[in-house]
Amino acid sequence: MKTMRFSVLAAAVAALAGCSKMEPAKTENAGAGHEVYLAVRASSSDTRTAISPDYSISWAEGDAIGLFYNSDEIKAEWGFSEGSFTVKNGYTQNLYYPIYTGAGSGTAAFSYKDYVAGSVQHPMSGYYSGNFYWQGDVSQTTLYAYTPYRYDTGCGSAYNVEYMPFLLPAVQTGTLEGVAACDLAYASAAIMRGADDVVRGEADFRFRHLFSILEITVENTLADAVTVESVTVSAAAGKALTGDCTVDLTTGAVMMGKRADSFGQIEGTALPSVTVSPEKGVVLLPKAAATLYAVVAPCDLTGAAVRVTTSAGSQDFSVAGITAEAGKYYRKSVSLSDLTPDPVAKVYTIDFEDVQLGTEHYSGMIGDHSYENILTAQVLDHGDWTGEDYWGWSGPIYTTGDGAAVFTGYYNDFGGYFPTWGAFAFSANSRDTFVDNDDYAYQFCAVTSGKGANKFAITYDIRSLQMDRVDTAVDFAEAVNPVSVDVTNTSMMGGHMNENPAVTFVGYLSGVKSGEVTFSLVDVKEWTEVDLSPLGRVDRVVVVMGGKPNSTPYYVCLDNLKYTKAE
User: Fold this and answer.
1) 3-state SS string over 30-67?
2) Tens digit of pLDDT for each residue in 172-224?
3) Which of 71, 85, 95, 267 suits 563 as a labelling partner, its CA being 20 to 30 A distant?
């Protein structure tokens, strides 16, 4: 069992209304006998993790802080085995400090976690002692922290402190818990050198917030009860409220429309709107009111619009000149008085029943398998496909009868040693249980108790496995609004439920990301409908798989893809 060694990380929080200034950090002598030389304290009048309706603030169970340091000035102590701390280097950043005591109060103690996973940039893993050591004759250093803690498998544990990736969701729940989950705060603290090479003392972090809160109160002045399904706030052209962003933890600067990885920035997506969508809707009786919350990037809201969508129609409202600042909240009240009924759009369903299935045989290093009732890219005419070289063949494997949607397929025989298909394939095979080993005989079997010989699509996401460059994509002839899709596991996934397998649907319109929906595949043993409406207006949907790298088979079964035609 791994042990936890504790350093003090207390955070005092008070009122939310305002953005506190960064204050100088205090440094105190912790004493040479302290097991962990550096104690860390965080306090602020601005930190929010759990928020009460009166805006009183407290730390909550599950809170954690990420810690960065300058590896030219100090280095962390860690080793390859528990209790053996023999290496001092700066490879491991974004150190994980989970809450220890104080949940439910304004002051909490945090501990560091002694086991640190490797990163893309530096794949070594090991045990962190909680200690740092000064390098050369450096006399002081600055530590950087943020909360809540995040770990991105694409970036590993070694985030660049100046290029911290963050995704501010375009679709939020509207709850105070959702505010805490979407928020991000940062801080820095100076540490002065003592008489020896050990980093001692106490770093006092003062957290500041990077985003703003919108508090939207909806009142029902109609004669009948209605259910509020969503509230969408749209900023004027050129303004960004949500989406990909990069945070510089040394300054607190946020760059919307950029996405960071371990090596710097890449292009991302900045979105001009945020949609608050309560999980089950909010029922408003006549004269009743409800308040929903959204976290947005600070921006000028002049010319912004608010659309309230209900079970009886929608109503639009305007926003007066408000410039949202980081760490502050802003109130907007609207009254439902004249709803416009929403037009009923025809829902189209792609059920794959016209796919022509057959028998295929694969022979290679993983053995010989013959499969009945399937279709992969192996059997297609690859003459008009791209990339007939080491990268294999990729192109359309299935087009709907009306030409509305095209599904991408992929095949590569790798010289006959490891023939594989990828992207989309199709099957009519199912079973009602998982298999517990990676038996490829079951890669085309959907886990379900019914549906018999129903035809469905199956994906193998080879791009996320970094085996190739082919997206698992559905391309539409014209813009559509995805509604939902049925999802289940393949039988082959049985031994991987503890690896947090998941599928993410990413929407694009004219090459620009419109939104994404992630669905956990853990213990999914039946066809389950997944809501795709948060993708918005799209002309492409890419299926991306997630799980444990180099272990989880990146398969998922899909059926009954529903959409409406966009206006």
Assistant:
1) CCCCCCCCEEEEECCCCCCCEECCCCCEECCCCCEEEE
2) 989 888 888 888 889 898 889 988 888 887 777 778 889 999 999 999 999 99
3) 267
